[in-house]
Amino acid sequence: MGDTSGIGAGTEPTLEEQIAAYQREFQDLDPQVEQIVSALSRLNRRMNVAYSRQTAALGITNADWEVLKALVLSGAPYRMGPSDLAKRLGLTPAAMTHRIDRMVAEGLVTRKRDEANRVRVIVELTPAGREKWLEAMRLATVFEGNLLQDLSPAERTALGEMLIRLLRRVEDAQPDAGGRLNDLDENFGQGA
Amino acid sequence: MGDTSGIGAGTEPTLEEQIAAYQREFQDLDPQVEQIVSALSRLNRRMNVAYSRQTAALGITNADWEVLKALVLSGAPYRMGPSDLAKRLGLTPAAMTHRIDRMVAEGLVTRKRDEANRVRVIVELTPAGREKWLEAMRLATVFEGNLLQDLSPAERTALGEMLIRLLRRVEDAQPDAGGRLNDLDENFGQGA
DNA sequence: GATGTACTCTTCAGCATTGAAGTTTAGCTT
DNA sequence: AAGCTAAACTTCAATGCTGAAGAGTACATC
């Protein structure tokens, strides 16, 4: 076995270690700001891991889950066009075409031409697709309840209010939200 | 032009609209929990958009930025092996090989064999790579300061403390953090 | 000191995504 | 109604990732 000396290990540092490293390498850093930002990133990464395990347990992919979510939230009769879906999910229409192909094969949605306007296509949720979404939501609800378990009602209110305040600020500064989100949502902001 | 009637638009709903849609489609939902979880997701997405614009402005990719970050945080002399980097970033060693190829070509890192243990490779930050990281950090600091601008010191303390409490809980429930993170970190948890 | 085993990195085939070009349809203008 | 423009979707080449197989090196044991 190779000796482990020489080069640092690849294990993830704790939040405290990471903040200490930032302070060491970059003096102009407010540790409190860094703590909040890093915790937000890490929390989101963990949440995504949890959601992904849930969808895997249901036999669907994350890609499927995103599409199901958009369709359900659009309301009955759960129909959207491919390019609307693409905009909603931050994908190109080309990628949407392939996703829909797969989901039709899996029986989660149907695809048909819009007879009223034959250049359009209608993607519609199947009952099986709706059921998958419901199952995923039931799992997600359990996870989210556990996540927030330690927070009192007053704390939840305060946390929600502060997060919304942050969101408003960043949305004001960044009015053009949509677009290319896929490159970005990697474990990218991990702590900067 | 096609009429816009018929099928819903692809624009992103507001947070309030989205929570209302969840309540309509899924009765067993705690709106307060949903508010916190959705706000966390959206906030993270916006943060990633901001970071991505910054790296683009500096002429590097998000992939480059992640590698630079890992190397800098490892501390002087800013050296890591490809597989340590891969573990740290949640990529396969194969992907790491290609990223390093690109970054060597860009002059951000160097690659050489470890003469003490010739099966290993040493990836080392160049001065240019370190400078890029510093520039990115300066931009990130400005953004993060703006983001938290509306929060009083007491609120920042409270927010940081609550986020860390949530993080501890999810880390306890999910001890195996690393691994396949790239599929997951898409705009996936967007609100579930 | 020869063989076996483990580990590190690279190469290769398969898949999802992007950006751009291509196809079909709708609506506008004359 | 012929032609122009715009829009929705699909097809195609290129890129980056995964998972698995392959090549090279070091350590352990016999």
UniProtKB/TrEMBL annotation, chains A, B:
Domain named HTH marR-type: residues: 33-168
SMART domains referenced in this protein's UniProt entry, alphabetically: HTH_MARR
Protein name: MarR family transcriptional regulator
InterPro entries assigned: ArsR-like_HTH, HTH_MarR-typ, MarR/SlyA-like, Tscrpt_reg_HTH_AsnC-type_CS, WH-like_DNA-bd_sf, WH_DNA-bd_sf
Pfam family for this entry, one: MarR
PROSITE patterns cross-referenced by the UniProt entry: HTH_ASNC_1, HTH_MARR_2
